[in-house]
Each structure stands twice: as C-alpha cells, then as structure tokens.
Amino acid sequence: MNWYWRLAHLWLALVSAVFLFLLAATGFILSFEPFVEKTQFAEAQIDDQQTLAELLPRLNEKFDEILEIQVDAYQRLSIEALGAEEKMGGKVYINPNSLEIIAEVPKSNAFFQWVRQFHRSFMLKSTGRWLVGITSIFLVLISISGIFVTAKRQQGWGNFFKPIKPTNFTTFSHIFLGRYMLIPLFFIALTGSILFLFRAEFFNENKTEIITFSPDNSTEKDLKDFAYFNQALKNFQKIEFPFSADPDEFYTLHLADKVLEVNAFSGEIQQEIYFSNHKKLKDFSYFLHTGEGSWWIPIFLILGSLSILYFIYSGLKMASKRLMKSKNQWLAEDAEIVILYGSENGATQRFAMNFFKALVEKKQKVFIATMNELQNFPKLKQLIIMTSTYGDGEAPNNAHKFTEKFQQYIQNQTFEYSIVGFGAREYAQFCQFAKDCDALLNKSKANCLIPSVYIHNQSKIEFQSWWNLWSGKNHLEMPFQAYFKMKEIERKSFKIEQKEVINDGFSTVFNLILNPIDTLSFESGDLLAIFASPNARERYYSIAKINHRILISIKLHEKGLCSRYLYQLKVGETLQAYIKKNEAFHFPKHQKSMLLIANGTGITPFLGMMQQNPANKVHLLAGFRNIKHFSLYGKYLLITEDENVTLCFSREKEVKRYVQDVVNQQADKIVLNLINGGEIMVCGSLKMYYSVMKILDQNLKKQGLSAYHFVEKKQIKHDCY
Q: Which regions span the lipid bilayer (predicted)?
C-alpha cells in the first residue's frame, strides 16, 4: 500500500509541475507586496490605543463634512471628506495625530496588480481560474502524500524529524526541506484551494444573520458617550457617516466579523449584521494566503514559494533519473545477462548503469531494466540484482512487483545469479530487501554464482571488490576505474618498530607498532588503509594511538591477502598506507560516562582511548576466546580499579561467557546510563554488534524508546566489520 503514496506524490507533481512553477514564481513576487505597502505612508498608521471617540470630534473640527473613515490592513488611516476633496481630489491618508493630509490614496501598484491577475487566472479568465484552483488542490494532495512518503522512508512517525539516512544531496535536500516547510506549504496550498472554491461559488459567503433592535432614540448623546465609539480604532475597518445627526440617520461600522448600524442621535445600536462562517473562513484564508497587513506571514510565503520552486527542480531531477530509460541493444528474448535494479532515488541505478555499460563494451548480450520490469527471458544465463531497501525493509518503488513477476516468469528456469544490496549498517533492516531477494532465489532452481554482498553507504571500494570478483568469474577484463572516478590518496611510509604474535589455539593474532616516517595527525579510532601490493585495493584497520605510535591488531586469515602480507613483514621494514580520519568514532571530549564494548581485535582503538582519557569514567567490556588471546593486549590497559574492565572468555570452560551475556545481565544499568546522557562505543564483529543492539532495543522498548534512537543521537557509535 505504501508505494501508492510514492506513486501519487510523483504523478501529481509531474502533472502539475508547469502550473506549480508559475504559481510559485508569481507567489514569490507577491510575497514582497506587504513589505512594500508597509513602508509607504507610514505616518498614517494609527496608535493601538487610539479610539474612534477621540478621533471624531477633532475630524469634525478639521473638515466640513466627513463621508467615510477607513483603516486598511496596514493600520493606515484614510478619510473621504468635504474639504479634503477640494485639496486632494478623493480619499486621502491623514496623520492620526496632527490630522494633516499626507497624500491621496493611490491605486494599486500596476506591477503587483498584473502579477496578481496572472497568479489568479494565468490571464485565461474562467479557464485559468479553474487551472489555478485544481493546481492548488493538487498541491494539497502532494503535501499530504509527501508526509506519508517521508514517514515511511524514516521508518515511522516517531522518526519523522530524526536524521535522514545517507543519500545523495538532491534527495537529502528534498526530504530535509520538505519536513521543515511542511506547515507553510500545506497552508499555502489549503488557503489557495479554499479561495478557489469561493470564487467558483462552491460556498456562499453572502449569507448573513441580521438582528434588529428597537431602541429609545429620544435622548441625544455626545459622540464620546457612544458605547461602540470608545473601542480602539484598529478594530474598525470602515465607518460610513450619516448625512445628519437626526434620529433617523445612522453610522455604519464595519468590523472584522459584523456590521453595526448605530443611531447618529442616541448612539444606540439599531441593527447587527453578523457574517457567516463561510465569509470568516474566506477572510482568514485570504489573510494567510497573502500576508496582507502582516510582517511575519510574508516571510513564510517567500520561503514557501522558493521551496516549491526547489521541490520542482529536485523532484524532476530525481524523477528523470528514476524514469530514465536504458539503451538496451538486445531484445529481452535474446538477452543472456540480465541486470535488474531497485532504486528509490537513483543512486543504485547509477551503479547498475555503469555495470551495464561495461558489459555492452565487452559485446555481451546484456539487458537492463527495473525489477518491476522483469519479464520472460528465454535465453537467460545470468541474473544480476542490484537494489536498495526502502523504509523498514521494504522494496523501492520500482521493485515492489519483483516477487510476483519472478514467480510468474522465471522461477522455474535454471540460471546463475548475483545480488548486490545497498544500505546503511547502522539500521537494523540493513539491505533487508536484497536479503529477501536472495532468500527467494535460493528457493528456486537458480544457482548462486557469487555470495550476495551488502554495501554500506554506497561504498565504491566495496562495490569494486564485487565488480572484480564477478568479472574474474566470467573471465572479462572490466577496468573499474573506467566507469567510476576513484580519488587517489597519497600513500605514506610506516616503519614497523615492534611485532608480537600469539596463537591462542584457535587462530593466529598479531600486533604491529608502526612509526610514521612523516609527521602525521591521527587519533585512536582512525583507520589505517594498507595496500598489500601496488595495485591491490586498500584494507582498513582501526588504530590505537600509543605513545605517538600506531598500534594495529590483525587476525591471520589463511587466504587473506592483506593479513598474510602484514604477517610476513619484519621489524625494521616499511609498508605503504594512509590515515583515513574517522571522526565519528573518536572519543568524545566532554563525555564523563562511557561504555566501550569490543570483541577480538576490535579492542584496538579502545586501548589508545583508555590511555588518553584516564580521568574519565570509562568502562571497558571486552570479549576474547581465552586468556592467552587477551595477553596480547593486557599491557596496554591502565587498570586503576577492577570495575574499569570486564573481560569475557568464550573458550574458557570455567568462566565461559560472551560480551552479549554481560550486556544482558547489566541491561538495566546500561539503559539508565544511556537515558542519562551516557554513551556507548562498539568495535568488533557485526554479529556481536547486532546482538548487543537487539538486547538494548528490547530493554529500551520498556521505556518507550529504541536503541536506534540513540544511534541517531550519536550516543551509540560503532565501527564493526
């Protein structure tokens, strides 16, 4: 059901884009009119406390006969009077204090008047008014659908204003701006729609409620004794004067919600005419839509108009990428290699398109389409799926029909497949849709060519590894750099000063102490990118800063290219690498309560952090296979109190336990510390991280919270692999 909101949001915007652009552009111009008006004839602005009873006697002395007094939306006083006409020829602005005539009330600014007419009807009369009205209603629907799309993308209403998942700038800005301009945009659209409905006579604003009185008008009163005349002048919009003070004559007082007829002789109310709720709604909508008389509403109108213009640009840019058709050179019935992509904002599509181009240049019979466009491929030999995950583990908009179409067309075919998922590891549903696709294909007759890979934050380095593996399996020379620009980083030399190796009975683990040849800036938690050979891709190791040296800890893998290269190095030799800043995993400067959780070689950065922050309240929870494994790190820990460090050994029979066991036992204490502002840093295996997060999440839910809430607040940080 959620994809309907996305589809509605897209097509409503596409259909109305041109008209929305015209309305937003003219609305932007008209938003400045209140500022222009507010600067003109400022001397005519009335005092908030000034009453009609105070003003009238002075006006009667100054002018021969007053016909009408008016207070406009900008609180400027104008009159139409005999005496004034002779001098100025019509309605004039006057100074409410000195009663000096300032200027004749001018006609509306010709430029703003033309823009206003265009804004209301596109200069197409009745047809234009309908186009404007329908576009306004579309904007209301676009706003509502945008709310639901954003809520779904953020994985729930409670996360609506939380940090946005990593994505490209166009998508990020579209979502970010949309969230904070939501209210102004909705009211611009809603009030515009209401005004259209009144112009189209869907509502009757002329209906009134009239109450007639029969007062005693035999006693004459002074103007200052008229009850309604002692109200502040700002409450009146217009006062129409009688020809004389006879008992049969009356003043007509126009207020915001009613019209009063006041006997000119006695000051008694003869009639009250109350406006309908429809008219009040129209007037209020007009005020919100134009900002007339206000100084703050036009600011929101300006921002709203600019936002609409940007939404049109960014939305069309995203849509063009999403709807972009590939240049398939082979028909579906002839294709042997099929690439299907699922992409919400176009990022995954770019990876798929570059892979497609590389295969085209290698003269492969390749076909590319969205996952929704899966059809019959009778000659299919290989299927490559590249997809992101939307919201809480769901398919992107152009992939939600994949399961249905897979079962319909190719479920019973025999072919090889490869799956590449794109996502962000900090979310529990990391690459979930790609994993669902893997499970679906695993149950079919298809065979997995390469184990599915799940790429964090659109990493080109991770994608390059899959690219090289796939091209190698298929015996194709496909240079990755020809399709992706990779930034070359200068490599530095590091001398090996110490090397310590142990075998704990299960695996070989070793530490290296490195001294940079050049002066470099680095902190515990940064990453050291090491190259096993000049043309190999870098491998990242988390570092500890120990006495201005770099400590890295490595587990030797039997077929590991980089770990074996490092294992073979000797003290005194050098290696080529560079420091990659990892500020998101630095020890916070002002944090007084910190829990560090690690397993295996993941303890490395924490060794440096604990040495550099001995005064802070830091607790280390670390897990190893056995005591021999831990002996590689013990000398780096400055343990001042037993409670500073908790160790777990998963292969020691008498004290066997895992990090997760301690977290589960101490969950209440850890949760309370988080709620009180404490922080947690986790380094080690992803399996351990997810287990810890699951335990914390279960316990935080008792408090109505989520562990991922604290990830977004940066109170839980991780660097896991």
A: 7-30, 130-151, 172-198, 295-316
